[in-house]
Amino acid sequence: MIDCHYWPTPNGWKVTIMLEECGLDYNLVPIDIGGGDQFKPEFLRISPNNRMPAIVDHAPKGGGDAIGLFESGAILEYLADKTGKFLPALTNEQAPERYKVLQWVHWQMANLGPMMGNANHFKNYARNITDDPSQLEYGVKRFMGEVDRLSGVMDAQLSANTYLAGDKYSIADMAAWPWAFLLGRMIDENIWQTFPHLKRWVDLVASRPAVQTGRKVGADLGKKELTEEETKARQNILFNQSNDKVRAARKEAAHSL
Ligand SMILES: N[C@@H](CCC(=O)N[C@@H](CS)C(=O)NCC(=O)O)C(=O)O
């Protein structure tokens, strides 16, 4: 059994989509990131970066102790190797295809995810936090510019390939789709006219039953009506983090081992 430490966000969906695609049994452990669960000692022991998703596999492939993992890209790679699905193996014959997939997984982790996350922060969330919205202009310009560039990178790749890493559906698609399908909603629905190949792929991946199921996992978790005060408290947890806070939480985690 695999524990999936999760909150319904694009990075969380990557993992639930993969678990559904592989037909693996899993137990959902909600990590309410607005409520501060990511700083709890038991979670920090699995995910020292205080971010979800994370997993604990109680029955690793080679036997032995349970294994805990954080970072969605590493989790996708692990689950692919565990099941032998959606990532070619590390054999002489398959290695070139494997690295084609992994380069797009790493591309997503280092580019599309962080840039879209920051674009969304400056464009949508930060307006309710700062007293001086003019401070946000450069951040919006910088990160929206990167999102535009990265959408063009995907569009060009998908103009010549059915899927992100070639002709086979892989963990690269599972890493990028949960962010890419939100581009219209986050930026503007007209964006799809500029990136038709990207839109073709977004719809193709969205048609997979496991993607539809994985994307809906825990959908109700974040849907509580909040008072203004509760919203402020949640924003303070998410957007006011420092090394002191993480160090203090890690100290507590170490003491409670
Ligand atoms: N690179 C990480 C990013 C994970 C991440 O940013 N998770 C967010 C939610 S999507 C989170 O846990 N935020 C909690 C916080 O900001 O304290 C991954 O892909 O796993």
Task: Give a concise summary.
The chain is α+β, with helices and mostly antiparallel strands and 257 residues long. 57% of the residues lie in helices and 7% in strands. β1 (2-6), α1 and β2 (26-30) form a beta-alpha-beta unit.
Summary tags:
single chain, alpha+beta, Glutaredoxin, Glutathione S-transferase Yfyf (Class Pi), Chain A, domain 2, 2 domains, 12 helices, binds glutathione
Overview of the molecule:
The protein starts with a strand and ends with a helix. It is built from 12 helices and 4 strands; from the N terminus they run βαβαββαααααααααα. It is globular. The protein folds into 2 domains: 2-87 and 221-255, Glutaredoxin; 95-214, Glutathione S-transferase Yfyf (Class Pi), Chain A, domain 2, CATH 1.20.1050.10. Helix 1 (10-22) runs parallel beside helix 3, helix 4 runs parallel beside helix 6 (171-180) and helix 5 (137-160) crosses helix 9. A 4-stranded mixed β-sheet has the order 2-1-3-4, covered by helices on one side. It has helices at residues 10-22, 41-44, 72-83, 95-125, 137-160, 171-180, 183-186, 191-194, 196-206, 209-216, 228-239, 243-255; strands at 2-6, 26-30, 54-57, 67-70. With 257 residues, it is an alpha+beta fold. The structure holds glutathione (GSH).
Q: State the CATH superfamily name of the largest domain.
A: Glutaredoxin
Instruction: Report the C-alpha radius of gyration, rounded.
Output: 19 Å
Average residue pLDDT: 94
Uncertain spans: none
Tell me the CATH architecture of the largest domain. Answer: 3-Layer(aba) Sandwich
* CATH fold node name of the largest domain: Glutaredoxin
Quickly give the structural class: alpha+beta
> H/E order of the elements?
EHEHEEHHHHHHHHHH
Number of strands: 4
Sheet with most strands: 4 strands, mixed
Distance between the termini: 23 Å
Bound molecule kinds, no repeats: glutathione
The level of helicity is 55-70%
> How would you describe the shape?
globular
How would you write the strand order of the largest sheet?
2-1-3-4
- Could you say how many structural domains there are in total? 2
Number of helices: 12
Q: What portion of the residues fall into strands of 2 or more residues?
A: 5-15%
CATH class of the largest domain: Alpha Beta
